[in-house]
């Protein structure tokens, strides 16, 4: 599926209220940035294992744009991390909302000074600071930070959120007055039919059936057949995206509704959700289709343990019961936040089943009742699922086989096209007892890819890890220390012409656990950009004239350490 992107154009810094479908009682906030605004991500967009929790404001592929407080308030939280949001700022406002500014390059002076003091106090680049109400207060329009590309950002932009302060639920920022130049309706590119159970069929099949969609007018029409013959219980799905005026990129939609005989039977709305709901995206979409084709289909069927709050209305769990001899006029209606609408009408005709059910019960798989705990234990491995690991009951296969190049057998746990909601525990017994226990870790094996480290601890003869996907797993040992390489200076060289030192730090398997730099025996603050493997020390008063000694120590998650030491001439 094409990456969902969007653009929002605005020429003024004070946000206007949008008249129409949007809620009229919401407050008006100042724009968080003072350049023409366009979006590279909208609220609730479908992302890997999560819904996008805010809007991504483009910054013309540059960092350093001023970021403003949208309203009076106080800084309630500051977080700094090598990944995730990177440098992030949280401001609580008197109206009960919290604004969030993430992937920042740096904070404004007062905030930056406070953060640096706390980092030196804890001798840690990574901090998660909660502040009292009177610690740092801000005014509407005050510069609080500068936009950047920190954390897991894939390019310069400002990630912006508005949350309910009390519940910390994330709210669609477009509720709060953003005007968007958008007269383009969303697009539906695919209609999918899902017969439910062995005795149902649609489009001459009792398996998933895909119908391409064409049309450029107000109402799209499915490709042949225009009349879908079906029997039994049927669910539906669509692939859909939106586009704003004047830009080629696509982004997510706001609402999706299914009407049958003029009755609304299903509605999804990207307006508000909590972080503990975000992984329900894997139940909303056809996860099997996504794993096979890397394209997302939003399903109408609601799994038994899917508790996503963005469903506004669902009748009969999103399933249509098709009666023989009856005809149903159905229509998907998709809207963006500006109210531009796309229609996909289709007809379902109830007929007697034409498909001979040849489905055979798979006796090689084990049925997992998702509301109950389950454990399987063999001599060389064990797997423990807690209640709620899956969205519905599943038939899973388990087993083991020799694994060339691994320190254990390859353990097979279910099928990787089945989504996992809650983490489960897997334990694997090593085949070679001579390997140091602290060097062993579980890896996930995917065809055509390098093994992915899952971590692991030694427990009663097994290496045990908590994982959140199904597939094949085995043991490897990480005995190789991390790599440390100077990028903009040489050992023993002059640094007086530089403003900062940069080193590349990498680990090929278990991943970096800790990093520590000292200058002349004293800890120094080094900014770690995990996505670029880059460690940076910005020169300050700790760099003295003359000879300075720099020591950098990096340790991976299997306790392998590397030390880089050099003299710096300043």
Question: What keyword list fits this structure?
Answer:
570 residues, mainly beta, Glucose Permease (Domain IIA), Chondroitinase Ac, Chain A, domain 3, 4 domains, twelve-stranded antiparallel β-sheet, twelve-stranded mixed β-sheet, 46 strands, disordered N terminus
Kindly state the percentage of residues in helix. Answer: under 10%
User: What about the largest sheet?
Assistant: 12 strands, antiparallel
Total number of distinct structural domains: 4
Which structural class matches the secondary elements?
mainly beta
Shape, principal axes of CA atoms = globular
Radius of gyration of CA atoms, rounded to a whole number: 27 Å
Poorly predicted regions: 1-24
Number of helices: 3
* DSSP strand content: 35-45%
Task: Tell me the distance between the termini.
Answer: 52 Å
Kindly report the average pLDDT value: 92
The tally of strands reads: 46
């Amino acid at each position: 599926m094409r990456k969902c992107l969007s653009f929002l154009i605005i020429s003024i810094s004070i946000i206007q209220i949008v008249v129409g479908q949007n809620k009229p009682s919401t407050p008006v906030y100042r724009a968080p940035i003072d350049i023409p605004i366009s979006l590279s991500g909208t609220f609730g967009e479908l992302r890997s294992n999560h819904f996008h929790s805010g809007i991504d404001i483009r910054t013309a592929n540059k960092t350093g744009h001023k970021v403003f407080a949208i309203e009076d308030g106080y800084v309630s939280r500051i977080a700094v991390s090598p990944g995730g949001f990177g440098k992030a700022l949280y401001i609580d406002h008197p109206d009960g909302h919290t604004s969030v500014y993430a992937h920042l390059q740096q904070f404004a002076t007062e905030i930056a000074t406070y953060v640096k003091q706390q980092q030196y106090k804890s001798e840690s680049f990574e901090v998660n600071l909660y502040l009292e109400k009177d610690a740092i207060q801000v005014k509407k329009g005050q510069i609080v930070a500068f936009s950047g590309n920190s954390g897991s950002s894939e390019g310069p932009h400002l990630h912006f959120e508005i949350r309910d302060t009390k519940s910390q639920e994330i709210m669609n920022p477009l509720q709060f007055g953003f005007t968007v130049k958008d007269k383009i309706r969303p697009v539906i590119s695919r209609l999918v039919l899902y017969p439910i159970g062995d005795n149902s069929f649609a489009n001459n099949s009792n398996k998933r059936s895909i119908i391409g969609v064409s049309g450029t007018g107000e109402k799209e029409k499915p490709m042949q057949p225009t009349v879908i013959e079906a029997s039994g219980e049927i669910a539906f799905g669509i692939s859909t995206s939106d586009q704003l005026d004047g830009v080629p990129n696509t982004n997510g939609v706001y609402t999706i509704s299914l009407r049958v005989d003029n009755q609304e039977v299903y509605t999804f709305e990207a307006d508000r959700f909590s972080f503990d709901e975000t992984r329900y995206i894997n139940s909303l979409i056809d996860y099997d289709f996504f794993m096979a084709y890397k394209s997302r289909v939003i399903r109408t069927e609601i799994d038994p343990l899917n508790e996503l709050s963005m469903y506004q209305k669902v009748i009969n769990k999103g399933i249509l019961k098709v009666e023989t001899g009856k005809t149903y006029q159905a229509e998907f209606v998709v809207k963006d936040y500006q109210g531009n609408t796309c229609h996909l009408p289709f007809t379902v005709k109830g007929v007697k089943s034409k498909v001979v059910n040849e489905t055979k019960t798979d006796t090689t798989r084990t049925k997992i009742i998702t509301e109950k705990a389950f454990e399987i234990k063999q001599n060389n491995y064990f797997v423990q699922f807690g209640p709620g690991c899956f969205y519905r009951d599943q038939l899973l296969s388990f087993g083991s086989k020799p694994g060339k190049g691994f320190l254990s057998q390859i353990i097979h746990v279910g099928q990787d096209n089945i989504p996992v909601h809650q983490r489960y525990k897997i334990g694997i017994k090593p085949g070679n007892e001579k390997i140091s226990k602290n060097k062993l870790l579980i890896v996930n094996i995917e065809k055509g890819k390098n093994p992915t480290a899952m971590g692991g601890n030694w427990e009663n003869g097994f290496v045990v890890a908590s994982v959140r996907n199904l597939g094949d797993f085995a043991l490897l040992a990480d005995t190789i220390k991390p790599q440390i390489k100077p990028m903009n200076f040489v050992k023993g060289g002059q640094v007086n012409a530089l403003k900062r030192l940069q080193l590349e730090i990498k680990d090929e398997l278990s991943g970096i656990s800790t990093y520590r730099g000292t200058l002349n025996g004293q800890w120094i603050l080094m900014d770690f950009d995990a996505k670029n493997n880059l460690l940076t020390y910005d020169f300050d008063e700790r760099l003295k004239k003359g000879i300075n000694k720099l020591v950098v120590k990096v340790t991976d998650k299997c306790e392998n350490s590397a030390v880089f030491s050099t003299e710096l001439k300043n």
